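Shipment paperwork, digital attachment
Item: protein structure file
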Amino acid sequence: MEDFSRTPVSELRKLFLAAVASLPPDEIINALENDSRAGARQIALMIRRRRENELEENARLENLLCFEKTLWSEGFRNIAGVDEAGIGPLAGPVVAAAVILPQGCKIRGLDDSKKISRPGERERLEERIKNEAQCWAVGRAEAEEIDSLNIYHAGILAMRRAVERLSAKPDYLLVDARVIPGCACPQRGVIHGDALSMSIAAASILAKTCRDRVMLEIDALYPGYGFSAHKGYPTPEHIGALQKLGPSPVHRRSYAPVKKYCG
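Attachment content:
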């Protein structure tokens, strides 16, 4: 059995807890558990908890790949997950993303963008998705198109634009909660797909982070509405600004709270 009795606890933390690529084997954990020092035994406990969390995350990611694994087994290779962000806001575009992940790709922490609230986590996942994806693309439909088509059909338009901009031609689409008319390849709409499919979850992250950046740009163009804070959603602050300033050129005039202040 390994003997760490002469190794300072601070050094053990660096060895086994700080930015390690893989968890140590059982013999090392056992040695730490048998150490006379409480600090060493605490490190062993933290390693075991980390191992349990890793097993749980691996199992979650396997479940998140259930649709993709079935399609891979049927011979499909370029499976694109598609999702959109921005159905509910009173202003700005609806933004969609399409993502093709390589077979067997697992991105730790990836989930429905609405479930991710830790600051900077969406952006961290966005970077990993873009680095690991076979290809990805975004599409959008502007406020005028939303008013002309209605938000449902504008969302589909944004999705179609994202799919058409992929650098690799998809041979199957997994779409969150709907299908996209006019696409040549087979597809499946998955209810709550952003929580059930890794490809759709990846698309939900890219759509959300892209739209948030668009709203920061819009905030600079049309100050006073607070777009950088609420991203166009109908918060009390946004409604108050609408009442005071009236609608901006990027407001969706077909939405009732905006229509009320159109004069």
